[in-house]
C-alpha cells in the first residue's frame, strides 16, 4: 500500500466509522460520498443509500471505505448471494447485493461518465445482459451447464454460473482461495457463485503447493482442466525502492513453470461452429457465451466485401479473424497479430483451412508500423489498459474504412475513443454488455468510421 498523501493535514481516518449518504457510482465498484468536506469511495452500497461506512484506507486526498451497515436501503438492494465478497472480504462480486437490472444501470452510468470526462463525448449508454446458453458448437450443442434460466428464480435473481475460467491463489498452508480485496492475504473460501457448475468441485479438499496459483478452465466439451503455476520468483519488498517494485511486477508477469493436474491443459472451444484447441492458461473470454456474441457483432459490423482486406489486432487465437475471413473469402487477406506466440500457434492450427488468414507473433504497434497496405476493416480487442496512443495513432494513419474496438475497462475504452475522435473517426454504434455479472466490469464494443 502506498504512503498517505500529504494533501490532507488532519488526522488519519483509517478504521473510523462515518455516517454518509451515497452519491453516484464511480469506476471501480464504489459510490462517491462526502463527509466533513472529504471524498470517500464507498464499496458495498448503492446510490442514495444512507450507510455507516468504515474507512479502510486514508489516502489524504480521498478515503476508501466499506458500507458495513445499511441504514436506509435502496429499492434495488437484494440479499447478497456471494459469501466471499462483502465488507472485509474478496473483491470478486462488487455488486452481489443489487438486482441484475440495477447492476447494469450502475455500469451504464460509469461508462457514460468516463466517455464524457475522458473522450469529451456526451452519450447515453445502455448495458445489455449477456444471456446464458447462446453459444453452440457443431451440431448445435450447448455449453455444458447452459440453458434456460431457472423459472423459479424470478427476474431479479442474480446471474450465476457464467465463468468458465478462473485463477485461484494458494496460501502458506496449501489451501486454494482468493485474495482479500486490496490485499495479498488469501481467503480459503471457494463459494463464489461466478464459476460454472463443477468448476471448483473438490479443490478445497486438496492441498496444493504453497504460493502457487491454480488456473481452472472448463471447456466447451465439459472437460475441466486444472493447471498449477509455480510461485513467481518475486524479489523481496523494499520500501520506496521503485526499481524493486518494477522488478516485482515483471516477475509476477514472467513465464512460470506449469503442472497439469487435471485434464490435458488444452481447452476445446467452439465459436460459430468452428473448433479451437487452446491453452488452458492462455486468454479466452471468461463468460461462456461472450466469444460467440462478440464475434457475431464483429461479423455484422465488418460487412466485408469478397476480396477486401482486414486486420485483427490483439487477435489471440483468431476468433475474429475467422469471421472476417468468411466474408473476405480466399482472395481477401486477413492479417492478425498477437504477442503471445502460443495463441498464434493455436490460431494458425484452427484456421488452417482459411488460405487468406495469416497470424503473426509480434507487438501490435511494431507490426502496424511495418504495414504498407491499407485495410478495409480493423478489429482490435486490446488488454485492460487499452490500445493507447502508440497503437491508435498508426492505426488511424492506415485509414481503414471501419474500426471495431472492444474494451473491458471503461476508462481505457473512453481514452481510446477520445484518441479516435482526435484522429477524425466517430463512433457510429456502441454496444455494452454485462459480461461479468455481479462485478463492476463491463465490455464495450464500438463501431467507428471517418467523419
UniProtKB/TrEMBL annotation:
Residues 130-159 are annotated as: Disordered. It comes from the Bacteria. GO terms for biological process: rRNA base methylation. InterPro entries: NA-bd_OB-fold, SAM-dependent_MTases_sf, TRAM_dom, U5_MeTrfase_fam. Keywords: Methyltransferase, S-adenosyl-L-methionine, Transferase. The keyword Methyltransferase applies. Pfam families: TRAM, tRNA_U5-meth_tr. The keyword S-adenosyl-L-methionine applies. Signal peptide: none annotated. Residues 11-69 form the TRAM domain. GO terms for molecular function: rRNA (uridine-C5-)-methyltransferase activity. S-adenosyl-L-methionine binds at residues 285, 314, 338, 381. The active site is at 408 (nucleophile). Residues 144-158 have a biased composition (Low complexity). Belongs to the class I-like SAM-binding methyltransferase superfamily. RNA M5U methyltransferase family. This is Class I SAM-dependent RNA methyltransferase. The lineage of its organism: Bacteria, Bacillati, Actinomycetota, Actinomycetes, Mycobacteriales.
Amino acid at each position: 500500500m502506498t504512503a498517505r498523501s500529504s494533501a490532507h493535514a488532519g488526522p488519519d481516518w483509517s478504521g473510523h466509522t462515518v455516517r454518509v449518504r451515497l452519491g453516484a457510482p464511480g469506476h471501480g465498484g464504489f459510490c462517491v460520498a462526502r463527509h466533513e468536506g472529504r471524498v470517500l469511495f464507498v464499496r458495498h452500497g448503492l446510490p442514495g443509500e444512507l450507510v455507516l461506512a468504515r474507512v479502510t484506507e486514508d489516502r489524504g486526498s480521498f478515503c476508501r471505505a466499506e458500507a458495513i451497515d445499511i441504514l436506509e436501503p435502496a429499492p434495488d438492494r437484494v440479499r447478497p448471494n456471494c459469501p466471499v465478497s462483502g465488507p472485509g472480504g474478496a473483491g470478486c462480486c462488487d455488486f452481489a447485493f443489487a438486482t441484475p437490472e440495477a447492476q447494469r444501470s450502475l455500469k451504464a452510468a460509469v461508462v457514460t461518465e468516463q466517455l464524457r470526462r475522458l473522450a469529451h463525448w456526451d452519450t447515453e449508454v445502455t448495458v445489455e445482459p449477456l444471456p446464458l446458453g447462446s453459444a453452440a458448437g457443431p451440431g448445435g450443442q450447448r455449453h455444458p451447464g447452459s440453458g434456460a434460466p431457472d423459472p423459479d428464480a424470478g427476474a431479479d435473481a442474480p446471474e450465476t454460473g457464467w465463468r468458465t475460467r478462473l485463477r485461484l491463489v494458494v496460501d502458506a498452508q496449501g489451501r486454494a482461495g482468493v485474495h482479500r480485496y486490496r490485499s495479498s492475504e488469501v481467503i480459503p473460501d471457494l463459494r463464489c457463485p461466478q464459476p460454472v457448475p463443477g468448476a471448483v468441485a473438490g479443490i478445497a479438499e486438496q492441498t496444493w503447493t504453497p504460493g502457487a496459483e491454480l488456473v481452472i478452465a472448463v471447456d466447451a466439451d465439459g472437460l475441466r482442466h486444472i493447471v498449477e503455476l509455480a510461485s513467481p520468483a518475486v524479489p523481496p519488498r523494499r520500501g520506496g525502492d521503485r526499481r524493486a517494485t518494477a522488478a516485482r511486477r515483471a516477475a509476477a508477469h514472467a513465464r512460470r513453470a506449469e503442472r497439469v493436474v487435471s485434464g490435458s491443459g488444452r481447452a476445446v472451444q467452439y465459436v460459430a461452429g468452428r473448433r479451437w484447441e487452446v491453452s488452458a492458461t492462455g486468454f479466452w473470454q471468461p463468460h461462456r457465451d461472450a466469444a460467440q456474441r462478440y464475434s457475431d457483432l464483429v461479423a455484422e459490423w465488418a460487412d466485408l466485401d469478397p476480396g477486401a482486406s482486414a486486420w485483427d489486432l490483439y487477435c489471440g487465437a483468431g476468433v475474429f479473424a475467422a469471421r472476417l475471413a468468411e466474408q473476405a473469402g480466399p482472395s481477401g487477406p486477413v492479417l492478425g497479430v498477437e504477442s503471445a506466440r502460443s495463441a498464434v500457434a493455436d490460431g494458425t492450427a484452427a484456421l488452417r483451412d482459411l488460405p487468406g488468414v495469416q497470424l503473426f507473433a509480434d507487438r501490435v504497434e511494431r507490426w502496424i508500423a511495418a504495414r504498407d497496405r491499407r485495410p478495409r476493416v480493423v478489429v482490435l480487442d486490446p488488454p485492460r489498459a487499452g490500445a493507447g496512443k502508440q497503437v491508435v495513432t498508426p492505426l488511424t494513419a492506415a485509414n481503414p474504412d471501419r474500426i471495431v474496438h472492444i474494451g473491458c475497462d471503461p476508462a481505457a475504452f473512453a481514452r481510446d475513443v477520445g484518441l479516435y475522435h482526435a484522429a477524425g473517426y466517430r463512433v457510429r454504434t456502441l454496444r455494452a454488455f454485462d459480461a461479468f455479472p455481479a462485478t463492476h466490469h463491463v465490455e464495450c464494443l464500438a463501431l467507428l468510421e471517418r467523419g
